[in-house]
C-alpha cells in the first residue's frame, strides 16, 4: 500500500521512499539472498543507537549500531471516513515489513552483530503542522513492528532507521490503517444500547405476564374470548392487550437485531482501509512542507 512498497526505486518516485542523501540506502541485488533495500554498509554515518555488546553474557545481545540515515515515507490519512475515526482515536497504523539478508557478507557478520531498526513517527494535522512524535523503540532481531494508535487530527510520517553492518534489509513493506472497532465511540454507543435493550427485553418478558396478572386480580379486567379479537368494533381490553404485546415484540426484536446480526455492523464498519495519495514532507521543528 506504500508507494514503491518493494523498495526498488528509492529517491526515484514522486511521493515514494526518500532519504536525506541519495546514496544513504541502496538496493542489494537478488543473489540467493538480497533483493531488498537497506542502509549502505560502505557509507560512513553517525548513529542514533549504539550497543557495544558488553552485556552479551547476561542478555545475549550482540553489538549493534543503528545508522543515522533514515528512509522516509509519508502516510496520509485521507477521506472523511478515516479522518472521523482518527479524530475519535480509533485508527491504528500497522507496518508489516518483509526482511531478508542483504548479502552473503551480512550472514557472516550475523555471528558478531545483531540486526536492528528504530521507527519514528511524526504526526501532522491537516495543515501539516507538527502535533507530536512517537517511536517504536529498538526493534532487535525481529521484523515485528508494534501497531500505533494515531492521535486526533493526524497525518503521519513513518521514518525507518536501520542497522548497517548486518542490516535489516526490506524486500517489501506493507502499511495499513485499521479502524480499531472496540475503541470507536460509535461501537461503545451501540454496545451500551445492546446492553440496555437486553435488560429491557428481560424485564419485559417478566413484566407483561405480571401486568396482566395484576390487572386481572385488582380490577374487573378479563381477557375477552378469542372471537372478540376478530371483531371490528373497538374493545378497550383488546386494545390494551395489543399495545402491551406490541411493546414486548418491539423490545425483543430490537435486542435480537443488535446481538444476532452483529455482522451487519461489521460489514458497515470494515477494519481495513486503503492508503492512497502518498506524498513526501520535509519537516522542521514545527511545520512541514510538501514537495
Give structural notes.
The chain is of the alpha+beta class. It folds into two domains: 183 residues, no CATH class; 84 residues. Helices cover 29% and strands 29% of the residues. It has six helices and 15 strands. The strands form five sheets. The chain has a five-stranded antiparallel beta sheet, with no helix packed on it. It has a four-stranded antiparallel beta sheet with strand order 10-7-12-13. It has a two-stranded antiparallel sheet with strand order 2-3. β14 and β15 form a beta hairpin. α4 runs antiparallel to α5. The protein is elongated. The C terminus is likely disordered. Keywords: Membrane, Transmembrane, Transmembrane helix.
Measured as a percent range, the helix fraction is 25-40%
Low-confidence stretches: 261-291
The N- to C-terminal Cα distance equals 20 Å
Q: What class do helices, strands and sheet pairing give?
A: alpha+beta
Number of helices, where a helix is a run of at least 4 consecutive DSSP H or I residues = 6
User: What is the H/E string?
Assistant: EEEEHEEHEHEEEEEHHHEEE
The figure for the number of domains is: 2
pLDDT averaged residue by residue? 76
Number of strands: 15
Amino acid at each position: 500500500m506504500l508507494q514503491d512498497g518493494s523498495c526498488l526505486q528509492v529517491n526515484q518516485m514522486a511521493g515514494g521512499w526518500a532519504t536525506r542523501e541519495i546514496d544513504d540506502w541502496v538496493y542489494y541485488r537478488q543473489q540467493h539472498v538480497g533483493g531488498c533495500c537497506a542502509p549502505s554498509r560502505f557509507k560512513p554515518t553517525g548513529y542514533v543507537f549504539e550497543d557495544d555488546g558488553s552485556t552479551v553474557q547476561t542478555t545475549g545481545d550482540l553489538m549493534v549500531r543503528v545508522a543515522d540515515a533514515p528512509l522516509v515515507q509519508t502516510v496520509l490519512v485521507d477521506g472523511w471516513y478515516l479522518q472521523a475515526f482518527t479524530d475519535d482515536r480509533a485508527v491504528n497504523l500497522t507496518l508489516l515489513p518483509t526482511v531478508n539478508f542483504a548479502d552473503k557478507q551480512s550472514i557472516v557478520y550475523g555471528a558478531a552483530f545483531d540486526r536492528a531498526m528504530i521507527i519514528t513517527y511524526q504526526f501532522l494535522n491537516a495543515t501539516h503542522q507538527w502535533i507530536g512524535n512517537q517511536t517504536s523503540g529498538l526493534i532487535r532481531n525481529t521484523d515485528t513492528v508494534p501497531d500505533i494508535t494515531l492521535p486526533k487530527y493526524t497525518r503521519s510520517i513513518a521514518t525507518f532507521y536501520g542497522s548497517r553492518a548486518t542490516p535489516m534489509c526490506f524486500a517489501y513493506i506493507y502499511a495499513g490503517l485499521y479502524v480499531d472497532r472496540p475503541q470507536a465511540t460509535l461501537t461503545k454507543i451501540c454496545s451500551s444500547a445492546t446492553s440496555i435493550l437486553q435488560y429491557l427485553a428481560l424485564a419485559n418478558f417478566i413484566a407483561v405476564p405480571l401486568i396482566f396478572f395484576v390487572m386481572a386480580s385488582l380490577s374487573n379486567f378479563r381477557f375477552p374470548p378469542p372471537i372478540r379479537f376478530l371483531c371490528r368494533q373497538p374493545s378497550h381490553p383488546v386494545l390494551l392487550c395489543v399495545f402491551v404485546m406490541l411493546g414486548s415484540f418491539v423490545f425483543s426484536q430490537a435486542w435480537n437485531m443488535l446481538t444476532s446480526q452483529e455482522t451487519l455492523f461489521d460489514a458497515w464498519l470494515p477494519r481495513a482501509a486503503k492508503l492512497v495519495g502518498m506524498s513526501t514532507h520535509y519537516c522542521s521543528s514545527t511545520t512541514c512542507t510538501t514537495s
